[in-house]
Specification:
This is Zinc-dependent peptidase. InterPro entries: MetalloPept_cat_dom_sf, MtfA_fam, MtfA_N. There is one protein chain. The protein has one domain: Cyclin A, domain 1 (Orthogonal Bundle). Helix content is 45%, strand content 12%. The chain contains ten helices and six strands; from the N terminus they run αααβαβββββαααααα. A hairpin with a 5-residue loop joins strand 5 and strand 6. It is globular, with a radius of gyration of 20 Å.
């Protein structure tokens, strides 16, 4: 499994070059990567190569992981660390990929001390200090703004300073107070909309907890950045500072190149 990709990456040695045609084929399946600048695209490839060389992958339930699947996962996993580097993921090594959603047994105690056991059907799970577990869902299988890989790897960053509570370790130049104000205000408004049954831009699952709101907002930040910026500008600004990139600006540049000039000269 992964024989060609392992040869190209040179596992155990500095990663070698992956064929450009393979990069282009995989990147074309992830249209939101077009929001990145040329230097960021090059940096993302470098990180993805290092990520693949340094992590252990396992296909669950007999899933055969192809080179295309591995590159797609690596590119998306490295988006949140584009300006942080691979050290942000140094505390764990495993990535487990299921062919679809999977079931995790849960045990929860209610307020009366009664333990309830149930099976939770999920698309992904990030374990503190342990592996990331993903469902393999190609892009068209999910609506725009929903990205299982980005979601789970955002949780991994959130866990750097403890549990996934929506308050990750911030860069030194960022204000904890500004982060808390932006996210708590947006989260409260979002939960009110969900409770009232109003349609929301973000997946209603974000109302589960501040940690899930951060992860879902991170999905939108990279996939539908302009939308997130319009609806939750303060959250977008905090995520842009945290991730060190501005995909909404890239989205606007891409749209401007695709649009004809407002006053195009008429033909004679």
């Amino acid at each position: 499994m992964f024989h060609k990709l392992r040869q190209w990456l040179g596992l155990g040695r500095p990663p070698a070059a992956v064929p450009d045609a393979l990069w282009r084929r995989v990147e074309s399946s992830l249209p939101f990567l077009a929001f990145l600048g040329d230097a960021e695209r090059t940096r993302l490839r470098e990180l993805a190569r290092g990520f693949l060389a340094g992590k252990e992958f396992h296909g669950a339930q007999g899933l055969h992981l192809t080179d295309e699947m591995l590159l797609a996962i690596a590119l998306q996993a490295c988006l949140p660390i584009l300006h942080k580097g691979l050290d942000a993921y140094r505390s764990w090594v495993g990535v487990i990929v299921y062919p679809g959603d999977f079931v995790i047994p849960r045990h929860e105690m209610d307020d009366d001390g009664v333990v309830h056991e149930y099976d939770d059907e999920v698309l992904g799970e990030a374990w503190e200090g342990g592996p990331v577990v993903l469902s393999w869902l190609p892009g068209p299988a999910l609506p725009d703004g929903v990205n299982v890989v980005i979601h789970e790897f955002a949780h991994k960053l959130d866990m750097e300073n403890g549990g996934a509570d929506g308050f990750p370790r911030l860069p030194a130049q960022m204000s904890r107070a500004a982060w808390a104000q932006a996210f708590s205000s947006a989260y409260e408004d979002f939960c009110e909309d969900v409770d009232a049954g109003r349609e929301t831009v973000l997946d209603p699952y974000a109302a589960e907890s501040p940690g899930e709101f951060f992860a879902v907002a991170s999905e939108s930040f990279f996939e539908t950045p302009g939308l997130l910026e319009r609806i939750y500008p303060a959250v977008y600004a905090q995520l842009a500072a945290f991730y060190g990139t501005d995909p909404a600006a890239g989205e606007r540049r891409l749209a401007a190149r695709a649009s004809p000039p407002a006053h195009a000269p008429r033909g004679r």
